[in-house]
Amino acid sequence: MTARAESKRQRGLSDADIARKIDRLLSQMTLEEKVGQMTMVENNSITPAQVAEFFIGSVLSGGGGNPTPNTPENWRAMVCAFQEAALETRLAIPLVYGVDAVHGHNNVKGAVIFPQNIGLGASRDADLVERIGRVTARELLATSVHWTFAPSVSVPQDLRWGRTYEGYSANSQLVGALGAALVRGLSGRCCDEDRGVLACAKHYVADGAARWRESPLAEQAPQQGSTAPPQDSAAPQAVELALGQWRIDQGDACIDEASLRQTHLPPYQAAIAAGALTVMASYSSWNDEKLHGHRYLLSDVLKGELGFDGLIVTDWMAINQLDPDYQQCVVQAVNAGIDMVMVPYDFRCFISTLKRAVQQGDVAQERIDDAVRRILRVKLALGLFDQPIGDASLLQSLGCAAHRQVAREAVRKSLVLLKNDRRSLPLPKDAPRLLVAGRAADDIGLQCGGWSISWQGEAGATTSGTTILEGIRAAASDSTVIDYSPDGQFADDARAAVGIAVLHEEPYAEGFGDRADLALSSDEIDLLQRVRARCDQLIVILITGRPRIITEQLPLIDALVVAWLPGTEANGVADLLFGDFPFTGKLPFSWPRSMDQIPLAALEASAEAPLWECGYGLTS
Which of 288, 356, 375, 452 is least surrounded by Cβ atoms within 10 Å, i.e. has the fewest? Predict the structure, then answer.
């Protein structure tokens, strides 16, 4: 559904009414007000007073851009302060506040954090994803946030990519179906409620096809909280480049147009048809041309051919990559079809640069008016002019039991059972003793992964929820002795019929997660072997954002469960381990035997079949 049609549905306005309202506003706006509407600023780089002074159209919290202390109430107060300032401007045009709520309102302590998209892809359940979108929208509106930069409708082709877990699947059709479902849930189109939030299909387009680079993007990584490329960092920090970081992310998709249209464009068509009113451009390139300056793909294809009349927003500081001269960056991006620029820091520089470009004739006034028209149309569609502040009564339901039940269901449906020799699962609830090992067995932060409270995520009790170990303890009988060791170093006489080893990737996001080798680490292998020596049957649970190379270790394992990055409600893992619910998840990606079968093109060319095909999954 287009922005115009969605606006009509939500507000009961005719197309003519909408056009007249926009025309009336545009006719009154100065160039400063129009350029202000095209500007998105990071929350720590601007004050509410400056929002009013510069007529800012949008403020965002980047990863970790949280108030102190991080509470739902403080989130709401922070957002409302910016909104109230915007409403004090001459024309009282509301701003729209944006966040990366990519698996729940995942920046807010106490909010429900759902499984990452790769897990939802394993569920293949569009109805579930719609309900996740609805819960997320309610928790966003509780804090008066009206825009989430989700869903990611990337179609990852290389498991080494640090954004693999942001993709639902390597299957374009499944990505489109689940991305559309999340859009419906976020926008409120899947229920009778007339309030929703803006969804944002990203990252347009073909970022999942970027190829591996032999050298990293730069010798240093970006600062914490920034998604800018390493060379744009104001405060860089060293990284271990040998891991392969920044070898795919923000890279180049060297594919023909037929492949782009067949695999990577359809999920955007599905998201737009479902009501997505915003699209975020990708850092990446298509055949060596940056997407943020790609007039053909942004204006001709997306806006023209697909009829998208919402707004196109940039990624974080992404236009800076287009040219060494900043004015050329601004001119190229806006002329290519970008409507709103995530600056995110020096908004004064962006505003003065764009104004100068218009005054010099480098950007036509008509292009500015088109961009602002789209921004106003989206804000009207969202109902921001009538209800710019979210409902405070929703705060009481943020993180509530009903929302956590949806997340627990999502965990159950996302787990994939890959091996179950000797009918190791389900476990008896009255087992005399269980050995449980692995840091991730009792760590909320490791369960959630990146984009969880902070940008990169981190280990520890970062927010409220239930760990895998807590779920096991709650599900087992009172008579069962559960012996837990984070590193698998049990007492000398410790032995049990069943041992559970939880292996994990350390949290990461974006290019920090690019990896040259997806094999288990030596620490993971040592843990597995220590537990194997003390039990008759070994159950392995993988906490991971992608398939890992586990072929050599597979003979040691009786039952293998892939839990992906399940979020805060890991009691859903115990629901399946003990047989309260059956395993139903199916692999959203093929599982390679070795690194020689990565990327997907290498797997398709391989003489050997993968360890498990996409769509594989046992039941119990």
Answer: 288
